[in-house]
Amino acid sequence: MTSGITDIIVVGAGVAGSSLACALGKDGRRVHVIERDLAEPDRIVGELLQPGGYLKLVDLGLEDCVKEIDAQRVYGYALYKDGTSSKLPYPLENLHPDVAGRSFHHGRFIQKLRRKAASLPSVRLEQGTVTSLVEEKGVVKGVKYKSKDGQELTAFAPLTIVCDGCYSNLRRSLCYPKVDVPSCFVGLVLENCELPYANHGHVILADPSPILFYPISSTEIRCLVDVPGQKVPPISTGEMANYLKAKVAPQPLASTINTLAGALYKVLCASTDPARKEMREACFDYLSLGGIFSSGPVSILSGLNPRPLSLVLHFFAVAVYGLGRLLLPFPSLNRIQIGARLISGASGIIYPIIKAEGIRQMFFPVTVPAYHRAPPYN
Q: What b/e string do you get for 283-305 counting C-beta neighbours within 10 Å, with b at 16 or more?
């Protein structure tokens, strides 16, 4: 059985798929969105929308999707380490008062986006599981999918966009992903408690990796614990509870980010390597300097400054700052060696990012061609 032909097929109705369907539908495109499960998702991803992300919602006319879901405004971060803290506000001074981060239950936000997309007359939102792409001479012509009631269907369109997330069963037919899983997040909900700084995310630089706290409703705080390794301790045997009680809980109690893109996240993790420890200390002290040293990195973190070059400059500034701490006032042979390893380690973290972004995109962005949307169909 074959369904009607549309202009664009979108596989997946998460944040990307639903937002894309809204934008395309407003342009007059006939969009068919196929989502495997239209029930409200219960996931811990995408719960903190940075100010830059909120501005994109405004651009798309979707800012009302964070209303009536008990979303909380977020104005920056509080950073904790070894009993000391540093407050890092978002640089919002020159922006509209409504611009701030938003934190919420992920599923509530997704459902608002889906309802917004489905309300457009040119958008068809359907529950179904896409099983494969339909290809002809290497060109994708559409998809095969199984509808909610079990029918095997085929949909055709000149353009198919796959947005079905990390559990995609189509990714391997489109590319050869190199997936690195250094750790897993474990999420807890704390009810009716207060954070030291209202309307702020809180990051504790714990051992072996950071712990995050942020509000997701007016009565709930999300705690995210990063557990190193590809597998988490099992819950059924009590190992997870023991890990949280013995390893994690003492550290928030003692000292009561998402880091700068995944690069600084590696820096913030504890390590026995003296060079990595020095880089970690330098990162905390650099952010604590205030001014451009905190507002610059936080503007990247918040999505207000999307330029990758800024990330690279601040990243190496932290490395140089750490090197200066080692060599001043009087360098020793051991400190020089640690400094050399610090710079080498920093380069090993940031160079893959530069390579992935592309030298041209990073350092000469004005030379990269810009692509603009074509006028809508009549």
A: bbbbbbeeeebbbbbbbbbbbbb
CA distance 247 to 206: 10
Which part of the chain is CATH 3.50.50.60?
Answer: 8-47+105-174
Provide the 8-state DSSP code for 378: -
> What's the CATH number for 8-47+105-174?
3.50.50.60
**For 34-60, b where at least 16 C-beta lie within 10 A, e where not — what string?**
bbbebeebeeeebbbbbbbbbbbbeeb
pLDDT, tens digit (0-9, with 9 covering 90-100), for 137-176: 889 999 999 999 999 999 999 999 999 987 788 877 777 7
pTM of the prediction? 0.73
Parts of the chain belonging to CATH 3.30.9.10: 75-98+180-258
**Six token digits for residue 286:** 């650099």
User: Domain 75-98+180-258, what fold?
Assistant: D-Amino Acid Oxidase; Chain A, domain 2 (3.30.9)
Query: Residue 292 and residue 318: Cα distance in Å, rounded?
Result: 12
Q: Give the pair of three-digit tokens for residue 25.
A: 């539908």
